[in-house]
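The material for today's practical consists of a large collection of protein records. Backbone structure tokens are a discrete shorthand for how the chain folds in space. An example says more than a description, so a record of this kind follows:
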Amino acid sequence: MSHLSTEDEAELQYLLRKLLKSTKDRISGAPSIECAEEILLHLEETDKHFHNYEFVRYLRQHVDRSLGAVVETEHGAGEDNAGAAHDIHGVTRRTRDSAEYKQMMQTLKNTMSVVVESLINKFEEDQLRKEEMDRENPHGQSESHFNDNCSDSDSSFNHSYAFIKQEQLQALAEQLDSGQPKEVRWEALQKVCCAPPSDVLSCESWSSLRTSLSAVLDDPDPDLSDKVLKFFAKTSSSSPFNLTREIYSSLAKSLEGYFLSHKLSLPFGSDGIDITRPDISRLLKQMRLINDFQKEMPSFWIRHPEKYMEEVIESTFSLLSVHPDLGSAPPGIQNALQPVYLLALLDVKATWFNKWMHSYYSRAVIFRLLERKYKTLVVAAVQQCLQHNTDCEHGTHNTTDACCSIEQQNSSSQWTVYTRRELEYAFFVHSLCILGKVLIYTNGRKLFPIKIQKHKDPFSLTDLVVTLINIMYRHPQPPRTAPTHADSLAPRTLAAEVLWMLCEQTESAVDCIYQRPVIEALLAPLIHLLNGEQAKLKSPGVTLTHIADVLARIANTDRGLSLFLHDKSLDLANNKGTSASHVIVQFTQRLLNKDLPSLAQSEMSPAVCGAYLFVCRQMYNTCEGLQVLRPYGLHIFIAVALKEARTLSSPGSTPIPGPSSCTASLGTQTIACPNLVWEETLQDSLLHLAATPKGLLLLHNTGALSGCVAYMFSRFVRKLQVSHCEKFGYGVMVTQVAATAPGVMALRDSGYVRALVVKLWSVLECGREDLRVVHPKSTPMDPIDRSCLKSFLSLVNLLSSTHSVWELLGGQPLPQKPAYSLREVPSSIADLIDRLIAVDSEAKINSLFNYEQSHTFGLRLLSVLCCNLDSFLLLESQYAICSMLLLCQKENVTEPASAEGEPILDSLSVERNHVLVRVCAMGGPSERKLPPRALQEGPDPYPWPMFLSYPSPPPQCYTLGAATLNHSKQDSEISAFLASSTDPVKEERWMAACRKQYCKAMSTTPNSLTGTVLSRLLEKVVSVDTATNHFFASAHYKAKESSVKSVELSSVQRLGINICVRYGRSLGLLKEECTEELALLLKHTQLFLSAQQASVPTHPTSIKSSHQGQDWLAATMFLIMAGDVNKTLYWLVEFSSLLCSAFLWPARMHNSVHIPAEVAASGIPPVYWCTAHYVEMLLTAELPLVHSAFRMSGFTPSQMCLQWLNQCFWNYLDWREVCHYVSTCVLMGPDYQVYVCVAVLKHLQPDILHHTQSHELQVFLKEEPIVGFRFQDYLGFMEELQCKYGSTVLTDMKSITMPLA
């Protein structure tokens, strides 16, 4: 290569030129020459096509020719050396030190220098030729200056950049002076535009050049000013931020100087500003470029020093603060045209400011500058809002026309004239949008109060929010001829949007919305209309809807809901001492009845009614809100309106609910569609009563439960959102409904249960149909695969209560078919049990694609179901679950044919063993031990014995040694107190003294409150309480022996008796087999309670005349009384006259004559709609994290509490704590049943929060005992709850005979 021919040089030039063209896109994006060099130096690292370039191939071939022999020689020498066979680095080093390498490098340098010099010479010749052509045709160039090569949309290679020296730039700055001829200035501009932006911006004379360019911006010649504007646009698009901010600052300062020097004025009357006028057009173009910069810069200024960003923000605020004083305007009227007017025309909703406020990085600088130097911007924005409010109040401006015209002008490019009213309206919208963004941040709210003209006192945040509310009230409805999108810029809509934003943020809502003047201003129109007065609303229907939207957002937060429900200090005209919730619910009732004389019928539309029903719904779907709103009977009004809506819909014109029903083209369907929407709104409002236990009872009383559940299922199928304020779906509501007999029947009839079973089967056995099978499905490692977890939890929620299990499975036999098709899908819970749990035949095993996974799923579901003792008794009595599991265990051995085979340890046998021990071993956390569900590492993977016999007790290792309870007299203070009180009936303060002694004994010697002492205490307490404080009529029971013998106990009760006796014997409470004694007690109680039950009406829930399941309180008292039937029966009969019996003894109130017939017929127990209701209410206030955890999991505290209380905490607490639960409720009062549940949930709070994150809260609460809970530790907490809520809870409990009042 040292002797290049002409052909070789030409080829090398061609290859180099081709390489540069291939990398054109990379080089063109470089902001400077140095960056372009870096790009080329690292091209091999960044370009995957590097080794395919012909120039690179040429160089590789040349290196091979020059150094190939040297490399082979060095490599051969290395092989001779035993230690350097792979010394690549040594070969490379020696090659680079060789003379051949040095000669090659020198040759390459000389050759490439010649080639590059030839390329440069050719480029200079092309450039000179182009300049000569430009001089020969100057007019053509002037005429086409808008299409020159300096367009900001072209790439760098089309810019025709040429290197320029510092002296040339200084000369160009002098040529741009305003004293120079236009041709000279134009040619100088051309050269500046063709120079690399980095050279121009980094030159020493940039300051003087920038000054000259800014002066050209103000030149009356549009050609020159547009040329500079294009230069700024082009330079900013290809320059880093530090250079762009200098251009932006120059542009802003130029505009600022122009406005201060020229002092343009606003038009008066019907005159307008014509944007085609040269000076206005030039200003708008410059402001448009400013606005484009504003929108783009936040995307990259975070990567640069804060001072650059601060300079941009400060130059913007300085420009917007320009306020020329013309001195000729009347007082209080703005006369000067300010920059902010033009910016508002270009960006009416202040999009630029929204982007600037997005990140804290820029937001902090904005608030700092506003606080220190530019607070006048906030003052001007507030002043503009006040001025607009005053104009609307006095009717001086027609804001509707201004709104429509601004919207039309924004959507049309032909509009050229803006009136003063339109300019001021654009400024108002711009100001309102900026203020809305400022107010949602703490530092923005710290700018207030501010000083406003014509206001003596400082203008506070509350004053501003009230002003926005007044603006919302005083804007009329746009005319029908207005554009459909004109309402987006209406003051009413804009003000409402700001209020909505403030409601969404907790801090801003507290500072701005949750203030008495604001709430009073929002409720003022409602109060006027309730009083028969005219409300000061320009468009009542639309404005009332906006008010309802704001109220709903307030009610959706805990703080706002509390303000509505309990703050009675609001000054609500003649309604002093009334909370906001009372005003809202009364207004909603009057709307439903169309009983507002001062409001036109057309304004009381279903949309307005629905909006206020939604506000009420936000209140009554909480326990606390329902407690306040229940006396108004709003659910009855809604039910009546729903019946009327259904009456108006004729059978022939009612469309089928669904997405297409409202888009039908038939006349009858189109007419019926609005009524259908109204009907669904009413159904939705009624449905949300089911969010609370007591609300579900009210919903059932309306007779609309089945229809509402069907409506919920239709929305569930379509995957529609519950509402715009709800964060979760219908999970909690479904669980709440499934806790009751009528609710679960409504779910079954709606198709929900079938859909749930089918969906479960599809994910468990079928998998997704739309999933391409490219790789085999991985074997699940968890017992329940994640794809099935959601369906599993939904089943647990559905079957959590005894009522749901009894309604869905009671009397339902298993199919037990001889053969099952692979395409046969279960459709009911009984089918599911048959296919997944009772897998006791080869036909069932062969019908499962994933036998082990599916059967494990069924066993896990069975384990959860059996945690509810009544559910287990039903399953065992109907399906002999234990016998079926034992049979599977016996067949799962190494030698099935012989009886001597060893059990096979697999996941199914371990799971079955766990279930068998769970259902056969009774006791609390320290009374039984359940075997693990997984094998252990080591020589003995499962050291637990298999349960292989039933109904015999499980192996001894699963029953822990419980302490023997002493039933003889115990020396204790409580025992001495009972012995000293010989005639407690005559002692008025005996109960108070007894409670005091009880609390003292509970805190010091809780073990003394068991056995004989406990039985004596309960007997005396009930005897005293019955004589002085009975709630029901005193009962007298005496049954004939023949009547008792005629009572037949169910198979469920017989199984329950065996369990109770076995548990009592393991605790040492029963000395002998007392099965017949307990059976006799249950016969007596059943006979006694039947005399207080109403006749069974024909009801959809098919309620049974007798209590379903075991009577766990009677069994508990039987054990406390050491198996004495007479003492237990006498105590229960006496106890039945106390209020506490209605809640502590579930069987007592089953179909009782003491509660209304419709409530008794529903089968919903008081322990659910009263006790569980108040548990949820207290959780919201006392344990908000636990309450939130339940909502997120789709489970309800009421479901879990219902199970705990129905079975008296058996299997969840140790026997001592079970006794303390009964004694505490009997002695301290029935309301302590609520406080006990809250205390238990408080104790479990860490575990609840942990298991909520792992999506297994339901399973944890149902399967795990309550470890470590002791009444002595939480009695003080319960007493605190009683002091805070006792009057409310106890008062509602006493209204048990009238729960619907």
